[in-house]
Design goal:
elongated, 10% strand
Length: 173
C-alpha cells in the first residue's frame, strides 16, 4: 500500500510540471539557436510556440531527413495534451485536493467555461513520459545540428522510439 497523496504532494506536481517544461523548452531553444542562430529565437514565445518552431525546423528537411520529420511530427502531436495541461495549470489553476475518503488527489484548472482536472497518478504518468522528451528531441534533431551530416549514423528503428520514448506510429507507417 502506498502513502496517501497529501495536499503538499499534489501541489508539488505544479513545480514538477514547470521544471519539466522548462527542460523541454530549453532543449528546443538550444536546438533552434544552433540551427537558426540567435536571431531565430527573438520571435519565439511560450512553450507551445518554441516547440512549434523546433518542429518546423525539422520539417524543412523532410525530403532529406524524412524519418526525423516524421518523429518530430509524432512527438509534437503526442505533446499536445501535455501542453494543454501545462497551459491550463499555468494560466487557470483553481485548486488542488489531497487524497481523501477514497477520492484521488487532483489538480483542477479552468479553460474558458470548463473545469479540467487530472489525478496525481495521471500527472505522474504524464511526467514520466515528459521527462524523456528532451533526450528524444536531441536525438531527433542531431542530424539537423550536425556540422557534417554525412558522418552521422542512421536513426534507431521505430520500435526503439516506441519503447524508449513512447512515440507512437500508425500501423501503416
Amino acid at each position: 500500500m502506498t502513502d496517501a497523496v497529501t495536499y503538499e504532494r499534489i501541489c508539488g506536481t505544479v513545480a514538477s510540471l514547470l521544471f519539466l517544461f522548462a527542460r523541454i523548452e530549453n532543449e528546443a531553444r538550444e536546438i533552434i539557436g544552433r540551427v537558426g542562430g540567435p536571431e531565430s529565437l527573438s520571435k519565439v514565445i511560450g512553450a507551445r510556440g518554441t516547440l512549434q518552431v523546433w518542429k518546423k525546423l525539422l520539417l524543412q528537411d523532410r525530403e532529406v531527413r524524412p524519418e526525423e520529420a516524421l518523429l518530430a511530427e509524432r512527438l509534437w502531436t503526442q505533446m499536445q495534451e501535455s501542453l494543454d495541461v501545462r497551459n491550463g495549470i499555468c494560466h487557470g489553476l483553481i485548486g488542488a485536493s489531497a487524497e481523501t475518503g477514497g477520492a484521488p488527489a487532483t489538480l483542477s484548472w479552468r479553460v474558458e467555461d470548463s473545469i479540467m482536472s487530472r489525478t496525481y497518478d495521471e500527472l505522474q504518468e504524464m511526467f514520466a513520459w515528459l521527462s524523456r522528451i528532451p533526450q528524444a528531441m536531441a536525438m531527433i534533431s542531431h542530424a539537423v545540428c550536425a556540422a557534417d551530416p554525412s558522418k552521422l549514423r542512421p536513426l534507431p528503428k521505430r520500435d526503439f522510439w516506441e519503447s524508449e520514448f513512447g512515440i507512437e506510429f500508425d500501423k501503416e507507417s
